[in-house]
Automatic annotation (TrEMBL):
<dbReference type="GO" id="GO:0005886">
    <property type="term" value="C:plasma membrane"/>
</dbReference>
<comment type="similarity">
    <text>Belongs to the FNT transporter (TC 1.A.16) family.</text>
</comment>
<keyword id="KW-1133">Transmembrane helix</keyword>
<keyword id="KW-0472">Membrane</keyword>
<protein>
    <submittedName>
        <fullName>Formate/nitrite transporter family protein</fullName>
    </submittedName>
</protein>
<dbReference type="GO" id="GO:0015499">
    <property type="term" value="F:formate transmembrane transporter activity"/>
</dbReference>
<feature type="transmembrane region" description="Helical">
    <location>
        <begin position="32"/>
        <end position="53"/>
    </location>
</feature>
<feature type="transmembrane region" description="Helical">
    <location>
        <begin position="249"/>
        <end position="271"/>
    </location>
</feature>
<dbReference type="Pfam" id="PF01226">
    <property type="entry name" value="Form_Nir_trans"/>
</dbReference>
<keyword id="KW-0812">Transmembrane</keyword>
<dbReference type="InterPro" id="IPR024002">
    <property type="entry name" value="For/NO2_transpt_CS"/>
</dbReference>
<feature type="transmembrane region" description="Helical">
    <location>
        <begin position="160"/>
        <end position="179"/>
    </location>
</feature>
<feature type="transmembrane region" description="Helical">
    <location>
        <begin position="109"/>
        <end position="130"/>
    </location>
</feature>
<dbReference type="InterPro" id="IPR000292">
    <property type="entry name" value="For/NO2_transpt"/>
</dbReference>
<keyword id="KW-0813">Transport</keyword>
<feature type="transmembrane region" description="Helical">
    <location>
        <begin position="73"/>
        <end position="97"/>
    </location>
</feature>
<feature type="transmembrane region" description="Helical">
    <location>
        <begin position="191"/>
        <end position="217"/>
    </location>
</feature>
Amino acid sequence: MNDVNFFPPKDVAGKVCEAGVGKCKLPILKMFILAILAGVYIAFGAQLFLLVGSDSTLGFGFTRFLSASVFTVGLMMVVVGGAELFTGNNLVLIAALDKKVTWGELLKNWVVVYIGNFVGSIILAAFLFWGGTWSLNGNLVGANALKVALSKTSLTFAQAFFRGILCNWLVCMAVWMAMASKDVIGKLFAIYFPIMAFVASGFEHSVANMFFIPYGIFLKGNPKVLEVTGKTLADLANLNWGTLFTVNLIPVTLGNLVGGAIFVGAVYWYVYLLSKK
């Protein structure tokens, strides 16, 4: 096993635990700055998703595949560039279960990183709105952004919750497999396939939605975008700051926690680390 280009799962569990300790011990300001960066990076990927998805002539399946493929650049920048992402940090639960960090340190990391991710996502949504990139392809990029945001604030609690579970199950597997790789190319491939799968499948990622929904809220008052969508402000009544949290972020975040922290983190801790005690 020493000659292969990846670490075996048992070793990865130890590396994830060690990384979790490092994340929890970061000074709050550095943690917050890195979290802002992660929000920006994921939003960059989300913007590419909207851009590619605005070309409806490609057909549903191929459009989903291509738009999901370009979205993966977000997590690639987070993992290789270095940033603090709430959904990936759900794996830090391993360090708490292994008693390497306290539950208070774990909660602090999750809260600070979640808020930082939100700030970063809003920053990029505002920059893109002011930059007018929504007008590309005859305002179809903006129309697609509005459509995506509206769909995310029209889910039932159960739909958002279970899509959140499925999403972060795949996201944390992407992070897990990236940590298994010993080189950058391997990390990129490890990230690409699970992330492409969750995006193409329509699962829900809390941090991505911190960009998608606010960007849609910014755009819903734009007459040029509304004209392309054929919708009125009354049709978009469900797209607002309240539904961002109550309809989407609350159930999706809970689902992300279950999918990432429990179904990946806790399960692998039980299998690979608990037996060592």
